[in-house]
Amino acid sequence: MKNLLFFPILYITLNVIVAQAAVNVDYITIDGLDYFKEHGDKSNPALKSINSFASRALKLDKPYSVINTTVIPPNGDKREYFSYAPYSWPNCDGIPNVTDPQTQCPYETRDGKTNPDVKNLSDPSDSRKMIDSVVSLSISYELNDGDIAENFARKAVQLLDVWFVNENTSMLPDVNYGQVQRGPGEWKGREEGILDLRFYVYIPIAIKILEKSSAWSDYVEKGLRKWFSDFSNWLMNSELGKGVAKRSNNHATFYIAALATYLDFAGRTDEAKNVIKTFVDTTFQDTILKSGEQPKESKRTKPFHYQCFNLEALTYIAILSQKINGINLWETKTKFGGTIQNAVDFLVDLVDKGKVKEVESVLLPSLYKSRDYYGDKSGKYSKILNKLLQETDGAIEWWTVYSPKSLEGIKTGSASALLGSSLYGIFGLILGIFFAF
């Protein structure tokens, strides 16, 4: 029988985006946090630093909210989430007297090249920082006791209330204006905009942690469950949501990961199971060749990155499906005979043979989760984990805290170095740069 996540992993990265720290979670459980709390070194810099991050969140004078935007969404409602298509650039060739490229020039896509003016909108960064703060605060609550812990919880609950529940400040449960394509004519959201909110899958676990605190309330809980239920309905019934569901690449995979998470959180677990089952019977069938290559991702401008990116979502779905007693995605084969393990092995071999010309550490999220399920008799996963951890220690600011199982085969030097110097060595890993898809 395969090994399950009885001691789940907690894995963290710090991405510096526009000179701001963003903590992006990959997979987190209360069991993993409690194990660290019981067995971890209280003087460890990792613990101190995550508390430091949460402490900064405590000092926020103005909670994050979509209504703080200075750029009004196309329909005039500040409660709409609003972002620009990141890879879109104006082409003003042949257009005379251009005074406003955003409305006068058609926009064209340059895959992988982010237009810097997407930063002019505050919703994407505020949304990300809200998630970072809530997760950091909830983890600090779990790892501390007494009044200190309650202070962390109280602030996290406030941030959740303002962003999701309060009728005057909350975001509407849709992404009608996500990744808007600018240019002449009506500005409309795009299917890709749904991925802007893929970090929201970590809100339910933060809530699971916070509901034990004295700061928690039925009002906030009911509001959150209603918001995510309504958002699930929008994802399933809107033209944008249905469009993403029909895609054949990582967009659909992350869509399913999010939708199933939200449905389960909203108490609609049977629907979550059905969503995953339908995905497995359809879209998943085209994702992995027998060789392990992911053809829908390998043709992109950064083939290694996008294959890792899609695999990260697939492994997340596999764990979620286990949690809700759904289909075993770990063992399911595509129509080509490929499995998640084949996909992991394909990428591991590329790294091992020195064939990757991109950042290799993006493999870590799916690699450690796959290693926990499939095991590692040959030691090849441990070998690559060691390699990537040693290369990323300090170089691009990666740190990890593993469960005992995940430490098997990991050299003491690399693990202790990461644990000893971690700035955020406590919780979850990348979903890539914010507009990495």
Automatic annotation (TrEMBL):
**Any GO molecular function:** lyase activity
Going by the entry's taxonomy, the superkingdom of the source organism is recorded as Eukaryota
Where does the UniProt annotation place the signal sequence? 1-21
- Give the stretches traversing the membrane: 415-436
Annotated SUPFAM superfamilies: Chondroitin AC/alginate lyase (SSF48230)
Q: Which residue numbers delimit the Alginate lyase domain?
A: 70-353
Stored InterPro entries = Alginate_lyase_dom (IPR008397), Chondroitin_lyas (IPR008929)
Give me the Gene Ontology terms describing cellular component.
periplasmic space
This protein's record includes keyword Oxidoreductase: no
**What keyword terms does UniProt attach to this protein?**
Lyase, Membrane, Signal, Transmembrane, Transmembrane helix
What name appears for this protein in its UniProt entry?
7611_t:CDS:1
Q: Which organism is it from?
A: Funneliformis mosseae
